[in-house]
Design goal:
Layout: H1 12-25, H2 29-57
Length: 58
């Protein structure tokens, strides 16, 4: 899988919470961010497909 570097700004409190979760899960913050983005994209793609299918039924 090809990877790119994505640079973004997040709230300092959110970053602190992310770092704490990463330490607890023995993972890195970038790994958790990657998983969160992947989950969001998967959810949005599935929602779009359901809407498209629903519109075809109407």
């Amino acid at each position: 899988m090809n990877k790119i570097i994505l640079t973004t700004e997040i709230d300092a409190g959110l970053n602190q919470a992310l770092e704490e979760i990463a330490r607890f899960d023995n993972r890195t913050a970038p790994d958790l961010a990657d998983q969160a983005i992947r989950n969001l994209v998967d959810e949005r793609v599935a929602t779009r497909e359901l809407l498209h299918h629903g519109l075809q039924l109407v």
